[in-house]
Protein: HTH araC/xylS-type domain-containing protein
Organism: Mucilaginibacter galii
Amino acid sequence: MKRYKQFQPLAISEFEAAVWQHPVHKHNHFELIMIRQGSGVHHINGNEITYNGSAIFLVGPDEEHFFEIAERTQFIFIKFTDAYIHQVNSGSSFGLQQLEYLIKSRETHLAGFHLNEADQLTAESVINVILSLKQDLLSNEQLIWLQVLALAALLQRNMPELKVAAHRSKDMQAVFCYVHKHIYNPAKLKSRVMASHFNTTPDYIGPYFKRNTGITLRDYISNYRKKIIHQRLDSGNYSLKQIAAEFGLTDASHVSKIIQ
């Protein structure tokens, strides 16, 4: 299968197509795709998502996808790498948390975003600002980043809520999404709290996770938190004290112990 590699941290393109020119492919970056008009089907990881008019999709690295165009379609692609996310962040963690949750939520990637009329107009306005800045990516990098965070905030509130109905209570994707969403709040990651959320017991959820992943729930949470903290530190935009406050940790020494 073809794999596209993007070496620059950020790339923005706008084009129309009557026929999709790319095969089923993967890539090493994230793609935020906005469709302004047209109709067809977005194929992603074997799922088919029909679009007719405006639509927004988020595709992560290593996800297989392509478009089947029925009616000439206008696309806007915002492509960014992991390096971009941590390279230009100003040190404000709120928007970054929302973006990190979005890009980790494969459940959303497989469904797309269904915005109400007001939010759709806002998203289009934000993307128009991004397009106006794309001629000089280097000079406008920080301004574009702020627009991406605004989009992340807008899209997150339009994500499908994690269902806690009985037939979904033990769904592994829902468990992953829950962990990713609450990684900054240790109290919500306690086994009894998670068990209550998923309508099961503390004695069940841990072994269930281990049986399906080969790793304990506690280790997964620890490893995921450690990975994000390392990304914060590598960016050079955060102090240990700031990271401790963001993740609900005791102090900077607690952060140091986690990353050892």
